[in-house]
Amino acid sequence: MDLPALLAHWIANHRRTLAALAAVLAVISALVLVWHARFASDVLDLLPHQFDSVRVFKQFDREFSQAREVTFAIVDDTGEADLDGFIEDFAEKLRAEPWVARVMEKSPMESPEGVRDIQRLAVPLLLNLPPDAFATAIQALDPAAIDTRLARLRAALESGSPKAEFDLQFDALGIVAPALKPLAGSFSVEQTRPLSSPDGTLRIVLALTHQDDLGAHACQETMRKVDDFRQRVLASWEGAKPRVLVTGRTAYVGELSTKMRSDVLSTLGSSVVLVAAVFWIGFRRVRPLLAIVHALLLCCVVSVAFGALVFRELNMITIGLCAILVGLGVDFGMVLYGIYMVERDRGHSHEEAIAAALRHHGSGIVFGALTTAAAFLCLLFSGCSGFIQLGVLIAFGILAAAALMMTVFFVFLGANHHQRPADTLRLTGAKFVQHVFDHPRRRALAGGLVLGILALLGFGPFGRVEFDADPKTLEPRHSSAGSALREIQRRMPTAGEPILAVVSAPDAESFHAAWEKAQAHWAALVRSGSLKSANSPAAFAISSSRVETNRAALAQLDLAAACTALETVAGREGFSPDAMQPALTMLDSLRAAPQLDPRQTLPPSSPWWFVLDRFLAQSSPHLGVAYLTPTQPVRTAGPPRGLAPPGIEVHFSGWAYTLAELVPWAKTKLIQLTAAMIGFNVLVLAFCFRRASSLAILVAGLVLSIGALLATLKFASIPLNLFNVLAFPLVLGVGVDYGIYLVVAMRAASPQAELSTIFKPVLLSGLTTVVGFGSLATAQNPALRSLGTVCALGVGWCLVTTFFFVLPLAVWRDRR
Amino acid sequence: MSAADTAALITRLQEHRSKFPSLTADFTEEKTTRLLQKPLVTSGTIAFSAPNLFRREIKGANPSLTVCDGRQLWIHYPNFNEAEHYTLGQHSFFDDSLAALTAGLNFENIARFYRYDAFREATGYRLRLLPKTSGLKRILRELTVWISDDFLIAKTEATLPKDDHVVTTYKNQRSQPVPASAFQFQPAADVKVTTPLGK
Description:
heterodimer, A: about 800 residues, alpha+beta, Multidrug efflux transporter AcrB transmembrane fold, four-stranded antiparallel β-sheet, about 65% helix, elongated, B: about 200 residues, outer membrane lipoprotein receptor (LolB), chain A, twelve-stranded mixed β-sheet, 12 strands
């Protein structure tokens, strides 16, 4: 008894055992999914980690607090809402939420807490001044200088000067302003954290959450609280209600991860429905349809469980696995069922028909599964974790699909069989083949001409395939976080996409030196118009040597005399003791050993944290980031000319910057993977056919298919992006199969009869693959959607090329 | 006063301002601020021309001149040879505050900025204005305006945040045209000009 017969015997006689094994496999896989499956919804996880900009972006996400911030955009288009009142109420209630650590709704300099805390920040900043500037600043602490300043402020107050009133509250001694001067040269709060649109219709409220975990579940949980809060605060607000939009990393990840789950179900569901519809059109039978769907679902569950075990986290491209597997795996079932049905129609038993199907096409299926798996494993060379994961899982899934279709499918199929009347599709196929055999030259030339024109349009300099590097291409469809971000960017041009410049140093002194040099370099670029703005933590980078020098100078001053002078002159000029309190506190801080780390001087609720955390890393004291706004959007890879300060190791990143850097990589990978796949195909075809003309016909068919695909992309304005470039090698890997079936059939004793027989399975296989990929177009996820669209188009063109070019050309060749 | 009477009073005040768009007066201001142990008393003259031109001159040992031509506002301190320059139309907060304070005196757009009550008094009326928006509330808690029977502003009392108070009494009011040059200011070359709001 040969292997197919042995296997058929087992399947036919141990149906319940095999069904139970399949059920156990399904349950184990389901349990693995429940316990182990995690979705990595961060887009950064998809990008190739060998790029510095990607690594830096991940470090930025991890180290700087924006990853834990929720950005609320309060919008009033009508002008009827009291935005000031609403913001005040909103911020007050937000502060009371247990999941919120702190809130910023106005510039630190506009809030009483911010003005209070600036006095605390001023002490380390004063000691960090260049020694000559420090010496000038502390001249204000001379008793005579205090006398002069307070007398003048009193006189200015009598003159009605609002500035004098501000100075008395903020800087009675006159040393806070010089201490803060480096801040103005280092960053602008309005540019770093713009909180109001120029037209006043949009206001920003920032909330730092207590969210420690940056994962998808934690983000979803935070967003549930955010939505609940938003509803409550809007419900309680009397009067015209503004719109409250939410964005930020938490909002994006929460939204993406939620949509990923629905994408798994929607793409799998639509794929199964569409494939089932194609199967029904082809075979008009319910039982085999149910059997094939069960086998496919089992295959999907097993493959995803395998992925969950191997990779722990499944990324957003991999979730398209099921839909692709359904499209590809159904081919095996249809081919096997086609033979099985013919055998049963001939009067053979269930077991004999299974054995015949396995004998005729078992080795072909194994070979096909291995070649397709190998094709997908080419993605291991993509250098991108998202593609690698997809490649490995589809390779595994295809092998699992082959194994399940050759076993479990027949278990689900059952032993009953009823003969059906004539098969219309098969007859149509036979007529088509007859027509091709009658006029092979005419058909080949016509097909070649039409497809050649399309290929010429595709490869030639007629229009161009757009490559979309817009961060929007990474957003799910109807993304509310994305819409909120664009609304903010539209109304607040200063909130545009910056280039991140990260500098790390081993110690405080070199950190200070690096930032001072970098800030000077970028400030010069801003002055020359090469940069729109540069905001850096230079002012917060404290130099220990400067502090030491300045402390020595401070020790020469009699600060006790300054205190006495302040109290005496204040009394003489009629100032209230309360008005002088901040100045006295400042003097006390200078007399004591002041805290030099600006972050150690602030209370947890201070709005200045939103500024400090934006520039300085949380875990590393000597890691900082600057925000550089170029005058022109970043479109080319690498930092704009002259951006890198000489002699300093700066790592650049940012969304636009990273995407611009990845575009050449994606184009190179497209060429490399496509070339690798063509090479692989040539090797396989050469091994299969050992005939140059067959190889040439198939390769010509693939070239025409890719050309037609490019023409479609050009004229239908379907852009390529970082993710759907993957489609080209996939199309080549999958699309070549149809040509192989036909060329193999041409080698049969009766090619026309053989071609008439396989016309239907090949057509149905192609259609199911097209709808399998096409079902990805229903996904919310843009990467998946665009990948599915391009793959479906590509496989569709491969199918057209197979029937209208490869087949007639092969027939014509044999005639000649 | 009833709502209808109050509305009628506001209409009459607006009509009066339309009829006499310009005025000059002398004033005395008493400012109680938490910064000083004793109230600060100043006096001077004011000239106003609807809708938004004004000139305010403080006299005495520490004089100052505030001039607004509707586009820019200057405060000149002759003793210090310094001037502050504010450009209107660039800072909505500053513009709204100025418009609201002006509305409390010329009664145009008063409903845009304030909720108000009117009271009949022995020698005229008292209007109590409460800011509507939070932005305005940050600089003014309440403004009370005393108006004579012939619709001249007799006194104002502004209650500021942190309990600062400014009481201003007006006398010698004359509803007469004020030359446009009174609302212009050009600092001398040696005057040090600062722009506290940046522009």
